Amino acid sequence: MITKHRPLEILLVEDSCSDAKLIAKMFSLADLPHNLRIIDDGVKAISFLYQKGKYYKMPRPDIILLDLNLPKKNGLAVLAQIQSEPSLRNIPVIILTASASEQDIRECYRMNANCYLTKPSTPEDFCRTIKIIEDFWFNVAKIPYN
Question: Fewer CB within a 10 Å sphere, N or C end of the chain?
């Protein structure tokens, strides 16, 4: 369970506006102080993580939810960059994507993703999945605060 006194910093890297809105709504219902930052492409995600440009004052995320099918730089490339940087690789990365490809699943785990979830097709199942993420990653698992 998260017990720090500051809000949890969550980075959502998602290019689907409807998925991002649904995820944000689900997190807004959570009984957990948090800041959800939404980035819509892989290049911006890397800039955010390295605190470059307009993101220079943004806090490092405590956890990342990462889609694979992103414009400009796909999620696998973002994950590879996260894992190659010692200051970033301790941030848990949850892959949340439409891809059910066995190759993508294997590659993400090979690259040390902490979890791989396929986006459900119905809004109800999607909400249930976000609730499971919240319950496990924010109430059960111990994650390092950055």
Answer: N
